[in-house]
Amino acid sequence: MIRIKLPTHKHPLYPTPWVRSCNGCCRDGDYAKDGYRCYECRTFFHKECAESSLEINHSSHPEHPLHLSTIVESRSPYLICKLCGLLIYHMFYHCPICKFVVDTACAKNPPPDVIEHPKAHEHSLVYLKNANGTCEFCEEIYCSRYLYECFQCQLKFHFECANIPLEIIHPSHSKHPIKFLTREEHHFSDGKCRICGNELKRRFYHCSFCKFSVDLACVNNLPPLTILSPKAHDHQISLMPRIISFNCDVCGWAGDRSPYSCRQCDFMIHQSCIDLPEIINVNRHEHRLSRRRQLSPGNWICGFCHKKVDWSCGAYSCSICPNYAIHSKCAIRDDVWDKLELKGIPEDFQEIKPFKVINGNLIHHFSHEEHYLQLNEENITCGENVRCEACVLHINYQAFYSCVQCDFILHKTCANLPRMKRHIYYDKPLTLTSGGMTQFKCSACYNWSSGFRYGTESFKIDVICGEISEPIFHESHGCPLYYIYRNGKTCAACGKWDSSTFCCDDCKFVLDLKCVVLPKTTKHWYDDHPLSLCYRVNTKGEYWCDICEESIEKYWFYNCDDCCTAFHTKCVVGDFSLLMPGRSIITYYDELRIEAMQTSPRFLPRHIRRSGQKIPSSTGTSGNSSRFIVYFPNEQL
Q1: What's the pLDDT tens digit per position in 454-488?
Q2: What does the pLDDT look like over 337-375, one tens digit per residue?
Q3: Rounded to an integer, what distance in angstroms lies between the CA atom of residue 406 and that of residue 365?
Q4: How far is CA 609 from CA 117, 546, 594, 601, in A?
């Protein structure tokens, strides 16, 4: 795998057999061989766009040379091409003196002023600069950069559509000519393009004898008829443009049309499987995975979907863990793969220790650099208001590290949390950082926390959610639970619908990301005894919450056996239960949340009800948000 760094893009680029949608010139449906792809940005580039000159002289602006730039570099989200009048999305040429701007497509192929002999119309067409309208041919808006008009007929055509004839011989269907039709003119078979499988729009080409339908994109730009890709197959493979049921020999999944095939080997492959990466990282496994054309014979189970893997079709597998494999299609999902091709990149992973051992039980932790921490393992219990700085949970007879000079304290397990890890909730590696005096909202359970967090600039989870790994064995259910991203199901614990949940493969049991981390036992200021989480197994009668005095429905709740009391989970473990007592916290809420806090204060912990004060929005907030400063006294939440 050749890894190329070009000045036109910030990340390394990798060769790909063809490109259909270029992020450089933003030409969609334009197949071209020998392009590049960026796995990290999930973008493609035509070869000529990726290798564009950094400076050119152009006839549209002969006064000065034009310099290549990108929208990110310009820091301007709204630039218009001076030739076609359309918005620029990525690469463009500009004159730093005159502020002249032209996109790369127009710089390479400026539009002609007149099309004298268009194939789709009998009269000449004139280019309309900065014009809007609907093309008479494809009836689409903005599917092309240039719009032309026939002043005799008052009809408009895109540049590409103006040059499309009403009847053609297509390379993938040479037996009969195919004619330009609309849905109203003809009833076709399955409503999909024979080549790419996309849904046909209102206008397309069709052969009534063979029921062969193809969309305009595949008429204008046919995928390569033959490809030589050593990553996919040893021999040259050819496009088979027909409806055919097959199993892809690379991913093992079924297909229904137009595979690439090798007759010599009886080999078939999806178009999308030709350019699979060879070495990758996924968030379901700690080691690198390599693409194997075949696995050793055996009963292989996918590490993501937990279904059988056809060993003869190969998969991604781990050289360190001999029994781990994952389907090719599962491995490159957006929520699983980090979008980096690692072939040719040496593995240079050095584990960063969270602390340095000074001597004996004395350590120097990264989160508390000013003082040393000392280990305490004698089953010491601390006051109920003493909490771990990392997980913000009570210190209850667990071993812990305490600062020799101040009140900083960590559970022993929290002090040993890895500085970096891969997690099922995110495709990129997550870094552990300390909380300090700031708070954040966990992207998984949506609770506010002032403890340690795993994350990136845009994604953060608390360390409780960060410790979750597949499979989960929850005592409320006998089967293992697996995380499914965007599956859209209702949680058995709270009855709420969530887009991502933990599910059982064998039954319909589901837990959302908030309920899966509910503590089995906890403390609350309302009751002097420990509270236990009740899963409503063999429970009879109606329960009422002693905090909010409302009925507890059929879902999970906390109860105290000594006092015969019950509580909603939301009343015991609310959004603020992971905020450290004794500190000033600044948070922002939308208008609806503030109204709920003002009218129903009993849903909030006591320290917030007593000391929360609203500051008018004129003090620095905008829109519908209001600002709260809340002080947490040194007592149990």
Answers
A1: 998 889 999 999 999 988 999 888 899 999 888 88
A2: 988 888 877 776 677 889 999 988 899 999 999 999 999
A3: 14
A4: 78, 17, 13, 6
Q: What is the pLDDT of residues 214-246, one digit of tens each?
A: 887 788 777 788 888 888 888 999 999 888 899
- What three-state secondary structure class fits 253? coil
DSSP code for 137: T
Q: How far apart are CA 295 and CA 24, in angstroms?
A: 38
2 vs 521, residue with greater confidence: 521
Q: DSSP labels for 490-503?
A: E-TTT--EESSEEE
Task: Give dist(CA 138, CA 566) in Å, integer.
Answer: 65
Torsion over CA: 150, 155, 156, 160 (sign) = negative
pLDDT band of 567, cuts 50, 70, 90: very high
Question: Is the pLDDT reported for residue 142 higher than 60?
Answer: no
Contact 93, 66 (CB under 8 A): yes
Q: Are 247 and 313 in contact (CB under 8 A)?
A: yes
| Spatial CB neighbours of 187, under 8 Å, sequence gap ≥ 6 | none
Helices (H), 306-400: 328-331
Q: What is the CA radius of gyration of the chain?
A: 31
Question: How far apart are the two ends of the chain, measured CA to CA in Å?
Answer: 56
| Chain centroid offset of residue 323 CA | 27
CA dist., res. 72 & res. 519, Å (int): 45
Kindly write down the DSSP assignment for every residue of 536-550, as one continuous string.
-SS--S-EEBTTT--
